[in-house]
Design a protein that fits this description.
Chain B: Keywords: 4Fe-4S, Amino-acid biosynthesis, Cysteine biosynthesis, Heme, Iron, Iron-sulfur, Metal-binding, NADP, Oxidoreductase. The complex is a heterodimer of chains A (609) and B (573). Chain A is 37% helix and 19% strand. Chain A is α/β, with parallel strands linked by helices. In chain A, the strands form 5 sheets. In chain A, strands 1, 2, 3, 4, 5 and 6 form a 6-stranded parallel sheet that branches. In chain B, helix 10 crosses helix 12 and helix 13 packs antiparallel against helix 14. Classes of the chains: A alpha/beta (609), B alpha+beta (573).
């Protein structure tokens, strides 16, 4: 809801708008956004009038303010938000320097007038790859004193992780320690970050003066400076996903495999959606119907009762809300603290108050709302009050497995089904199970493209490329090779791939074979961990080929790693360092520095999860 | 007698297989690298040609071929490994080794073949070396089990005529050993022998075969009358033991038999070997070698389906061959001696040999040794092998003889046979006991129709007809193959089926009960219903109208269902 404090409007305007906005349909909102944007750029007079109004309303400083916006981004969300904020700041007349943390020269930090940081947290509280060096610099003794420097931090994260938004919090705390002064309080965003990020941005923009007619349209892309134009009413995005037709959905694992990996082909048709190899596709899944039914039954609710969707004014039936709009498979501490208030007598609140943090974490891990429904008595708690506290269904991101050049108007994904048993019940990965069980060809699925500027082929097609992608981590490399094939690129390519069993788990086997035969793929090494008594992984194959690998790297090859972070990416990085030491004769520090330099030169990029 | 265009065209360009062999450096090719390629479970077509000489074919599980193609997976490549033993004779230790590697590396079954060899199916590339090593560790071999060389030498398996049998078996071994390839490639590739410098010339490498080996496979079998289990007339070179009162006098020699043909190509045909004379036992090795070298020098190297020895002989004439042979031998064959065959099937159950040991012939449907929930054949044989002190003998009809059981051990083995309910075939029809089917789908790349997997159900239905006709205990030889290459020697059966397409077979009638006569096409390209409708009236009539001791094949000719075939050249006539 609009307020005087989070918008550029007067009280009376706010009241009028608040009356009007909830009545608007989605289509009307978009139309209005586009109309205003077009109106603004078209009518100079109006613009001038607006500027005048701004000048009157705010005591904005005359000289342009210099703002440095730094982002640390793994999947591209921080980057996107940073671009959005920069655009709006520029619209307000600020002089903005926008940069990824890895590209920012630390020795210029002292000269920064205003520092704005947007950073996500990755894995177990880790900074994203392109934030690591700046993070380490700032936390080292070399970090300069920043007496009185105004700063603010937007932290992206996921409350289902123990160290929620840790990187953002660390930056926030460290900048304060170094003498900085918050120009706006830090905001921690959960996976459905849109609204919190908007609020934070409004605060930042307010600090830098009266916000202009950017009108803080909460969802409308038309107000985004990166929008194509006001007339384009059908730009699909995270908040306005495109309903893509399913063209093909097949299991890539052969008979006898204990795994299931779906190859999903979607039609982009005339959606206008475009992507580059390395980008991701977001999918909004539906929860497992059985889980939804069991949850409703355990809570003693009726599935057709109407409820208001979380952080929205829209109504749906309870069943639909729980199926498509709410996250019900993850328990977070903030969530159970809130729902505990709904039934103070059922013991949950008492338990939370009397329990150690680690015991609460242990309970949350691997449990979902059904467990909570079964473990406590929720008699009398209405569906509506409960649902309003839930997180919005977050989209799942998958590295795109196709090149638009090879498959125009299509996007392919490689999705491994997650299914495991925990606490006496089979648990289903929400999106992978949805794709596996519910997406027949002909159905549609809501999707959007998520840019990933940190995982891109070298611009020079002659640059050699080393790709390390076991399991579904191989997906983007199918896009890479498709792209290079279509471009007729002449640079050498080397793929390291692995999975459990050669016979059943060799994803896209015949395609690699064809690319090898045709020379699009120069070399390929594979490791199948369960075919031999001693488990073999990609890093072992890398070590076996250390001499040639080092040679490629010395020739300027770019190294890409995609896939599991915890188990694989660390081992692969260790192997890379070992190879640099062994073949390049480097010490520990020099090898690490070599890798950092590769990272800065965008010759070592990772897409890990 | 033969068409001119069948003549060996030595001037015609050699087939590409000849080139592959020539370039292979005595069967090495690029197998070493190919086996190490981890991106595919396959080997190249060229290397597969050479792999055969090492005793293995690349195959794939055809049941999942289409499904895997959709899944962007290569075919489920796997290897058939053939382990040979002259005369099919192996020790209990060797049996246990086969049992072990079948479970460890193959599909948990052992296939006994129509040439008294073992086949393992479903071995993947990465395990090939281990399999071949373990086979060789137990003194068996896969070398020359396939390929353009002399194959496993067959020999009458049933040692009840003990004294003669022992001598004949020794000669089988001698011939087999003499015709083994000499290349060290096998030992280098599989047995970790250090690579020898390949500077030696061809003669030293392969004194008999030379650098391009034979134009096609070559088969030798030895029969001991009155039994013709080895189907001696199906062999390129057959020997018929002539014996008197337990003493081996020598062998009649028969040449130019062979089963394979191609559908729709009447220039290809099955043929029965023709007897050309008699030799003394000690002349056997020499005769075999010279016969092989004649085929090496005169066989057709341009057209592979015309390259078997039978065409060399039919094209040039038997007289030409005898002249050439006697010239190379430097001596003349004697006139063939009299003998009599009365069957080519197995004699089941216990028989006592003249050496006072016992031999038990076990009925093994289609030669497939495996465990099923209600029939633990593989386990039963394993338990027997653990206590057995005699030998095992693979029969040419894909059955198994537990041989040379001493009187003391007989009880124990009988007990195990009972415990596991191992069958001597007494409970099944005589037709089933005399049935053979090749492997075909899903592993054999040549199969056009099912064989091993289908034959038992077809027999179920035929048995109903037999029961009605009162023929359940009448021995009729019936065989099926999934393609016309003839692994189950279908052209010699009284009733046979050769696959044309899924569910469709050619039906042949009129083969000789003792394997002495080819059968003839009766109906083409028919399915099960027609098969049953065609056979029902013939079997019923046979039951009513047969004369005493008249076999079904003979009856089919007398009743004019088919014409008698005297030579392969009449097969299509």
């Amino acid at each position: 809801m609009l307020q005087v404090t989070n918008s550029p409007f007067r009280q009376d305007q706010v009241e009028l708008l608040n009356l009007l906005l909830p009545t608007l349909t989605e289509g009307q909102k978009i139309w209005l956004g586009g109309y205003l944007a077009a109106f603004q750029s078209a009518g100079e007079q109006v613009a001038a009038a607006l500027q005048e109004a701004e000048a009157q309303a705010a005591s904005a400083p005359a000289a342009p303010q210099e703002v440095t916006v730094l982002f640390g981004s793994q999947t591209g969300n921080s980057h996107k938000l940073a671009k959005k904020l920069s655009g709006r700041l520029q619209d307000q007349g600020a002089q903005v320097t926008l940069s990824a943390m890895i590209d920012f020269k630390p020795n210029t930090l002292k000269k920064v007038q205003h520092l704005v940081i947007i950073v996500s947290t990755h894995g177990e509280g880790d900074p994203p790859d392109n934030a690591i060096s700046f993070y380490e610099f700032l936390h080292s003794k070399r970090a300069p004193q920043l007496e009185g420097m105004p700063f603010t931090v937007l932290a992206l994260g996921d409350t289902s992780y123990e160290l929620f938004c840790k990187t953002g919090r660390d930056f926030d705390q460290r900048l304060e320690e170094l003498g900085g002064k918050r120009l706006a309080p830090r905001v921690d965003c959960d996976v459905d970050y849109d609204e919190s990020a908007e609020n934070w941005m409004a605060g930042v923009l307010a600090y830098f003066g009266q916000a202009s007619a950017s009108a803080s349209a909460q969802t409308s892309k038309a107000a985004d400076p990166s929008a194509v134009g006001a007339g384009q009413l059908t730009e699909y995005s995270r908040s306005r996903p495109f309903q893509a037709d399913v063209l093909e959905n097949l299991n890539l694992n052969g008979r006898g495999s204990e795994q299931e990996t779906r190859h999903l082909e979607l039609a982009l048709a005339d959606s206008g959606l475009r992507y580059e190899p390395g980008d991701s596709l977001g999918i909004y899944p539906r929860n497992h119907p059985r889980l939804v039914d069991e949850l409703i039954e355990a809570m003693g609710w009726q599935s057709d009762v109407r409820v208001v969707l979380p952080k929205s004014t829209e109504e749906r039936s309870l069943k639909e809300a729980l199926t498509s709009h709410c996250e019900i498979t993850v328990l977070t501490k903030p969530l159970i603290e809130q729902v505990a208030e709904l039934a103070p007598g059922n013991g949950l609140k008492d338990w939370l108050l009397s329990s150690e943090e680690q015991d609460i974490r242990a309970y949350l891990k691997g449990r979902d709302l059904l467990d909570l429904a079964q473990d406590y008595d929720w008699t009398g708690v209405t569906a509506n009050s409960f649902v309003s506290l839930l997180r919005k269904m977050p989209p799942r991101l998958y590295s795109i497995a196709s090149s638009l050049k090879s498959f125009p108007e299509e996007v392919h994904l490689t999705i491994r089904n997650v299914r495991y048993e925990a606490h006496g019940r089979v648990r289903y990965g929400v999106c992978s199970t949805f794709v596996s069980e519910q997406l027949e060809p002909g159905e549609t699925v809501p999707v959007f493209v998520q840019d990933n500027p940190n995982f891109k082929l070298p611009s020079n097609p002659d640059t050699p490329v080393i790709m390390i992608g076991p399991g579904t981590g191989v997906a983007p490399f199918r896009a890479f090779l498709g792209e290079r094939e279509e471009l007729g690129a002449e640079g050498k390519t080397w793929l390291f791939y692995g999975d459990r069993h050669f016979s059943s788990d060799f994803l896209y086997q015949v395609e690699w074979q064809r690319w090898l035969k045709e020379g699009v793929l120069t070399r390929m090494d594979v490791a199948f961990s369960r075919d031999t008594e001693q488990k073999v992984y990609v890093q072992h194959r890398m070590m076996e080929k250390s001499k040639e690998l080092y040679q490629w790297i010395e020739e300027g090859a770019a190294v890409y790693v995609c896939g599991d972070e915890k188990k694989m990416a660390h081992d692969v990085q260790a192997a890379l360092i070992a190879i640099l030491k062994q073949e390049g004769g480097l010490g520990d520090e020099d090898a690490a520095a070599y890798l950092t330099k590769m990272q800065q030169e965008k010759r070592y990029q990772r897409d890990v999860y | 007698m033969s068409e001119n265009n069948l003549l060996s065209q030595n001037s015609a360009p050699h087939s590409d297989v000849e080139d592959i062999k020539r370039r292979s450096d005595y069967l090495r090719g690029t197998l070493e690298e190919t086996l190490q390629n981890r991106i595919t479970g396959s080997i190249s077509e060229d290397d597969n040609r050479l792999m055969k000489f090492h005793g293995s074919y690349m195959q794939d599980d055809r049941d999942v071929r289409n499904e895997r193609s959709k899944q962007k997976l290569e075919p489920a490549y796997q290897f058939m490994v053939r382990v040979r033993a002259a005369g099919g004779l192996v020790s209990p230790e060797q049996w246990l080794m086969m049992d072990r590697i079948a479970q460890k590396y193959a599909n948990d079954t052992i296939r006994l073949t129509t040439r008294q060899s073992f086949q393992l199916h479903g071995v993947i590339k990465w395990n090939m070396k281990q399999v071949i090593q373990e086979v060789n560790d137990e003194l068996l071999s896969t070398l020359a089990a396939c390929g353009d060389v002399n194959r496993n030498v067959m020999c009458n398996p049933n040692p009840y005529q003990s004294a003669v049998h022992e001598q004949v078996y020794e000669w089988a071994q001698k011939v087999s050993h003499h015709l083994d390839p000499h290349t060290r490639a096998y030992h280098e590739l599989w047995l970790n022998e250090e690579k020898v410098a390949d500077s030696r010339d061809g003669v030293e490498q392969e004194p008999i075969y030379g650098p391009v080996y034979l134009p096609r496979k070559f088969k030798i079998g030895i029969a001991v009358p009155p039994a013709n289990e080895v189907d001696v007339f199906s062999q390129d070179l057959g020997f018929i033991a002539i014996h008197e009162n337990g003493r081996l006098l020598g062998f009649n020699v028969a040449v130019g038999g062979g089963m394979g043909m191609s559908h729709g190509d009447t220039k290809t045909y099955p043929q029965v070997a023709r007897t050309i004379g008699f030799i003394l036992p000690e002349q056997m090795v020499d005769l075999a070698e010279k016969t092989v070298t004649i085929q090496r020098d005169y066989g057709d190297r341009a057209v592979r389906k015309h390259a078997r020895f039978k065409y060399t002989i039919d094209d040039r004439g038997l007289e030409w061959f005898i002249d050439e042979l006697q010239q190379r031998l430097g001596w003349k064959l004697q006139e063939a001696r009299a003998y009599r065959f009365d069957h080519n099937g197995d004699r089941y159950g216990w028989v006592k040999g003249s050496n006072n040991n016992w031999h038990y012939t076990l009925f093994i449907q289609n030669g497939r040794v495996k465990d099923e929930s209600d029939y633990l054949l593989m386990t039963g044989l394993r338990e027997i092998a653990k206590i057995h002190t005699g030998d095992f003998r693979l029969t040419p009809n894909q059955n198994l003889i537990i041989g040379n059981v001493t009187s003391q051990k007989k009880k124990k083995i009988e007990q195990l046979i009972k415990t596991y309910g191992l069958s001597d075939g007494a409970a099944v029809s005589a037709l089933r006991r005399n049935a053979m089917a090749c492997v075909a789908l899903p592993t054999c790349g040549l199969a056009m129709a099912e064989s091993e997997r289908y034959m038992p159900t077809l027999l179920d239905k035929l048995e109903l007809i037999l029961d009605e006709a009162g023929l359940r205990d009448n021995e009729i030889v019936i065989r099926m193959t999934g393609c016309p290459n003839g692994c189950a020697r279908p052209a010699l059966a009284e009733i046979s089926f050769i696959g044309k397409a899924p569910g469709k077979y050619n039906l042949y009638l009129g083969g000789g009960f003792a394997g002495q006569r080819l059968n003839k096409l009766y109906r083409e390209n028919i399915g099960e219903t027609e098969i049953l409708n065609e056979l029902r009236p013939i079997l019923n009539r046979y039951a009513k109208e047969r004369v005493e001791n008249e076999h079904f094949g003979d009856f089919c000719i007398r009743a004019e269902y088919v014409r008698e075939v005297h030579s392969g050249l009449d097969f299509h006539a």
